[in-house]
Amino acid sequence: MGLEWKKDKGKVEPGGLNHISRRQFLSYATLGLGAIISALIATPLVGSLVSPLVQKKKAEAEWRELGKIEDFKAGKPKIVQWTTAKLEGGVMETAPRAVWVIKKDDDDFTVFNSRCTHLNCAYSWKLKGESHQTAYGSAMPDKDHFFCPCHDGIFDLDGAVLGGPPPRPLDTLPVKIDDGRLFTSYRDFRAGIPEKVEI
Length: 199
Ligand code: FES
Fold this sequence. Notes:
The protein is α+β, with helices and mostly antiparallel strands. The protein folds into 2 domains: 1-60; 63-185, Rieske Iron-sulfur Protein. It has 1 helix and 10 strands. The strands form 3 sheets. Strands 5-6-7-8 form a 4-stranded antiparallel β-sheet, with no helix packed on it. A 3-stranded antiparallel β-sheet has the order 1-10-9, with no helix packed on it. The protein has a 3-stranded antiparallel β-sheet with strand order 2-3-4, with no helix packed on it. The protein is elongated. Bound molecules: FE2/S2 (inorganic) cluster. Residues 116, 118-119, 121, 148, 150-151, 153, 164-166 line the site of FE2/S2 (inorganic) cluster (FES).
């Protein structure tokens, strides 16, 4: 069964799907060609948009040394800060990074992303009874806690929300200990939502 050209402007004979007019054939061929050309143009464009994101995630996911395990004291959160730098389109881009390290034992560490889960503000560790400014005059808990000054977000040592608007606990990061040294794999998460979603 082959194609049979018809001159009657698109009329298809009953029972003959292979009977199409020249105009229909040209129309289908033009549409098909257009789709192929669009795909060829879009593929490298999408690749160029996605590739930097993938590369960024890959780079951030590398293990970062935070210090020797004896550099941290049990029950006393310590902030560790550094700056990342990478060449992007011929320009060196830098970004500040910070994590809070909580040591429970020599082989039991928790590392939090230092951004508040509400709207990404930086929070700090406050001792029980320590006086400090609050955004809304919120009452502070009767124990040591993490405090976010933007909207009085309060978290306990384990990252659980004690007060304020944060929708979820502090975001934990992967941890490993190798040869007496502590490492984390830095990543960021979407703020303002109850779920922990990596970005
Ligand atoms: S950003 Fe931390 S409480 Fe709003």
